[in-house]
Amino acid sequence: MSSDPSRDPAVARDLPALRETLNAFRAAGESVALVPTMGALHDGHLALVREARRRGKRVAVSIFVNPTQFAPHEDFDSYPRTWDSDLAKLAAEKVDLIWNPGVKTMYPDGFASRIVTEGPAVADLEDRFRPHFFGGVATVVGKLFIQCRPDVAVFGEKDYQQLRVVTRMARDLDLGVDVVGLATVRENDGLAMSSRNVYLTPAQRAVAPVLHRTMQDTATRLRAGEDVAAVVAAGGTRITEAGFALDYFEARHAETLQPVTSLQDGPVRLLVAARIGATRLIDNIGV
Predict the structure, then answer these.
(1) Is residue 17 located within the same domain as residue 99?
(2) Does the annotation mark 45 as catalytic?
(3) Alpha carbon distance 100, 30 (integer Å)
(4) Residue 96 CA to chain centroid, in angstroms?
(5) Which of 25, 83, 111, 113 lies deepest, with the highest CB count within 10 Å?
(6) Distance between CA 183 and CA 32 in Å, rounded?
(7) Please, what are the averages of pLDDT over each run of 10 residues along the chain (287 residues)?
């Protein structure tokens, strides 16, 4: 992907450079929309960038692989890092600013503070399997919001519990950021786009769309009035029989993430997390 060098984004790697660029935007009275990412950008990320462009005069994208949201057994060291490709894609989208700090910038020696989250962060979903995760996410996103002072921040709905946690945090801490969720971008066969999809073998990739198909079928049965517990249990069995190790398949309230027993309990979201081989996939849809 080629880009016009005159349109290449400003790249800031330390706080003085970040503030200089943002101060120029603010002095001109321009709103800022932020897209936080860990790089390895795909079409799902670019959809977030385009939504940010609709919502802000200036678009900033952060690229930071955050070590505090990875457990020791997870894939921090092997997480894909594709700076040249990411830069070219963001230049083509005419992004204004890339915030690309190093670990020492985000977590300097002696760093001793963190944001502790409750509410949707302790819903017995991702937090059951990754208890470290939302503390790391909330702290780094809180820092990004404070550093970049965006008017709007755009997140994908694929990480649905994360979206609910960040939305609640921004509201609770009066951070002045409008958190916007964008519908999951999918491959043609329904698989949610993810930077981790590159880990799938061809055989695993062929099986992976079972997650989305199962959620769709489950949602159809729930809308037809079938029993929530029975239908969700059947969906979990289908996922397991396809070759996944299932972490959870749940029907939850779309805002609070609390369990539901019927569609009358409020807006309902189906959420799934499962491993195939060494790769863990998550997904969700509204009912």
Answers:
(1) yes
(2) yes
(3) 21
(4) 21
(5) 25
(6) 21
(7) 61 98 98 96 96 98 92 78 95 98 97 96 96 94 98 97 98 97 96 93 98 98 98 98 98 97 96 97 98
Query: What is the C-alpha separation between 196 and 119, in angstroms, rounded?
Result: 27
Shared-domain flag, residues 94 and 152 = yes
* pLDDT at position 195: 86
DSSP 1-31: ----GGGPPEEE-SHHHHHHHHHHHHHTT--
Element (H, E) at 90: helix 83-92
189 in any annotated domain: no
Do 72 and 200 lie in one domain? The reply is: no
pLDDT given at position 3: 40
Could you tell me the maximum CA-CA distance found in the chain, to the nearest angstrom?
A: 58
Which residue type is seen at 11?
V
What is the pLDDT at residue 221? 98
Which domain range does residue 229 map to? 195-286
Non-local CB neighbours of 14 within 8 Å, separated by 6+ positions: 101, 105
Q: How far apart are CA 36 and CA 48, in angstroms?
A: 9
What is the 8-class DSSP label of residue 244? -
Among 45, 73, 132, 253, the active-site one is: 45
pLDDT value at position 73? 74
